[in-house]
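## tool: complex_structure
## caller: assistant
## args:
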Amino acid sequence: MMSRRTSIPLRIGKVTVGGGAPIAVQSMTKTDTRNTKTTINQIKELEECGCEIVRMAVPDKEAAEAIPTIKRQISLPLIADIHFDYRLALAALQAGIDGLRLNPGNMGDRKQIAQVVKAAKEREAPIRIGMNAGSLPATFKPQFPMAERMVDMAMEQVKFMESLDFNLIKVSVKAFDVLTTVQAYKMIADKTPYPLHLGITEAGLPRAGAIRSAIGIGILLYQGIGDTIRVSLSAHPCEEVFAAYEILKTLGLRQRGATLVSCPSCGRAEIDVVRLAQEVDKYLEKVAKPIKVAVMGCVVNGPGEAKDADVGIACGKGKGAIFKKGKVIGTVTEEKLLETLITEINSL
Amino acid sequence: MMSRRTSIPLRIGKVTVGGGAPIAVQSMTKTDTRNTKTTINQIKELEECGCEIVRMAVPDKEAAEAIPTIKRQISLPLIADIHFDYRLALAALQAGIDGLRLNPGNMGDRKQIAQVVKAAKEREAPIRIGMNAGSLPATFKPQFPMAERMVDMAMEQVKFMESLDFNLIKVSVKAFDVLTTVQAYKMIADKTPYPLHLGITEAGLPRAGAIRSAIGIGILLYQGIGDTIRVSLSAHPCEEVFAAYEILKTLGLRQRGATLVSCPSCGRAEIDVVRLAQEVDKYLEKVAKPIKVAVMGCVVNGPGEAKDADVGIACGKGKGAIFKKGKVIGTVTEEKLLETLITEINSL
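## result:
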């Protein structure tokens, strides 16, 4: 993996983004912002599942007015997602929001932006310049490829904010198309020193959307690009947080909870590996320690992977060898495998 | 994306792998190979869900003897997965297998390999030199990092087979650790001209395993490396095939079925986007055409994404605008959205 791109750190509430800080995991509420009760509940769920920065839509005045009530009852940094109307950005800042996301595709009036920037500067609230392919005006440089158009429009706003002596800036250039997204981020990474917020927009349902997101975000992180990530999925926001951590764990960038190594099973397996893996995985959801647990179906890779894990099973015919920290500590029958493994996980 | 690495093409049954051929999707049966009925059924399921090459474990003589019966009733190319015992490789070749996977980590005796290579050459059956981190002997170059150890052991076997004037070779160097896997493939890609079979081994259950696999396989494919892929998941093998195609579709390398663009929903949405996306996705499972369908919750990115899709919905308050090939063709109430969208999908 390449070394990480250096970016200027900024603080969103209590969380540092950029400058070598751990890559922060973001998500977004999917409740009606004006319903403060359900919104607060979802933010608390998000905190519990590991979200570190939460964003919520502020589509109208009533939503902006809900901010103080919500802020009082949560501890996660809160970002207001603003489109079209700069007055909602001003209202959110006045209501004590920790950061803003503005979309240059639908908010470009310089006088209006200048007012928002002035208010954000006074409150030291960072602004994300959040480009999306889907909201880029068709009239903006239509002769260029999408990646270049997103980068150019984002950079115009970056430069305008810099001209106002504002540098609490984050940037994103998201598209549904993964190759376009990767290209856009690679381009903008060389043009600005600000932290980059990565994501694949409108990626769809978890089954396919997590794969799309993992490829796009994964390629960029592997190249050292990215300071905070949000996986966009048509699902409960904790599913986004789960996927985000899996991406970061895979690349060795963050730790969170247990990791299950399990074989796909094949004609060689003599126990039901898939079911055992599912049962172990279900138990591991409750395990906070960053341990590695292996469930392996046979002697081909079983002993090797089980040895390499903190706890592991390498199965044979109707039984399995239990490994702990690289050593076989016993052999048990199939029906005792789950229970024995759980005991060993708990004893770690 | 970088240009694809050039590799020497080979044929596995009716499928060409390497040399610029479409990246082939593989999976593996998870039935008891000796039970020819369930194995044949699973291979037929695999063919139906898009698998192009199927591998099955041949762990004993009885499994090898099942090959002719299985071969007679399937049309997918069939590869025998062999470990430990070279005689099973000979038996599989004699039984008419289309290709072999041998694991140099547990089958290294040169006299034995030479016999297998001779028989494979006579039958023009390709051999995959299939390294796995989990089955690499601890005594093999323990002072080196895992990626280098896998590459070195695989290359020893490549060179030995070349010395026997055999070049129907494919190579894989899989590990659970994604960074190790990527590093190993990048190294071996420069050392051999043979097609590479990509995978992340023992990646686990689909929810996390598809993400791990997408990152590892995705990074390599993005760099132009890889000729055939197998996603290893503790699940029904068609789940592996689904994930494989999503990876390839994301990178523009293959087309298969419809693609759903759907927004994650947020406090701005005034209809139940997630439920609608789920319903549309369920319908799209039956659609074979490589179309793009967008389900978008609001006016921010909705019209842009819906215009960009073959068919799309951009929702507002209790209703949605229907887009087709870039144009609004009508507006319908929430309860008619699914039905209208399906009608338009079918009319494409």
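## assistant note: The first strand of chain A starts at residue 10 and ends at 12. The first helix of chain A runs from residue 36 to 48. Handing back to user.
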